[in-house]
């Protein structure tokens, strides 16, 4: 990453903007140096032991054009995340790294079922991550900063523990207002062949207990995946969700430009303001979009869909929330008002009480106003 990569078309450094991050995987955001140290502690074999070369290996391995291949890199990160000490450290460092990038609210998602190979229980794993997040928040506050971070618990769609993880989420949901507490449930993993409908009991239980749900859908699989996430899972947000563009037909009209015709599913997602947790760089790596210029993000934004900007996996994509904003702004000529709207959309979709969302929105507005003031002073 170079300094100029963070600069917006108007010269503003994107890192100065307050950001809300709804889709960031804990096991996809480790520091390469931390992986090397943790691997040495547990004698875990790595493809590279130099942090810079390891970071390059993750990035190149993830640039596969396939979601399945992209996900295979997680065997390394998950492999070193099997102890209380490791989970606590990784969660703390994630908070510190996000705050350094200007993130003011984040939901870190991860799958506890994947972190039990060295004897941890599900509750012990969740406790460790909660403690690490709280430590990270304390670190930031001790330096005069501010950030809020919660956990989203994932069940793996190719596994058979979704009912158990849903029960864990419901049990831990009472802590959703505690720093690092659990704020919702997610279904992650390879989409094709593993529809949300196969985990209907887990989703029904979350609905009965009023626990909010987001689902990975509409990335590697198409409209059926999105429909199942909405109807079978009761998802309030869609993880990625960019294949909703498959339900939009564009028609050229001689005198009036291009006309967009939305199908029933696209109309529902738009009109119900179902938030799309879009991660542009990750979408390019998995082949969900052929290029940034051809990515449906701008089309969906212009048509009034609720689009949010996310990192997905900062390590695999060699990215940050600020870089994602800068790339979009430079590609589609977005100004500060556009970037602020993305944060407001994410804020409104956050799994927080409405009063907390309102306070977060005020913080976002104040932060953007502070960035705008130098421009106004020059006028």
From TrEMBL:
Pfam short name (any one): A_deaminase
Keyword Transcription regulation: no
InterPro entries xrefs: A_deaminase_dom (IPR001365), Ado/ade_deaminase (IPR006330), Metal_Hydrolase (IPR032466)
Top-level taxon: Bacteria
E.C. no: 3.5.4.4
Residues covered by the Adenosine deaminase domain: 18-366
Key words of the record: Hydrolase, Metal-binding, Zinc
S-adenosyl-L-methionine listed as a keyword: no
CC cofactor: Zn(2+)
Gene3D superfamilies xrefs: Metal-dependent hydrolases (3.20.20.140)
Membership in a protein family: Belongs to the metallo-dependent hydrolases superfamily. Adenosine and AMP deaminases family.
Name used for this protein in its record: adenosine deaminase
Organism: Gulosibacter molinativorax
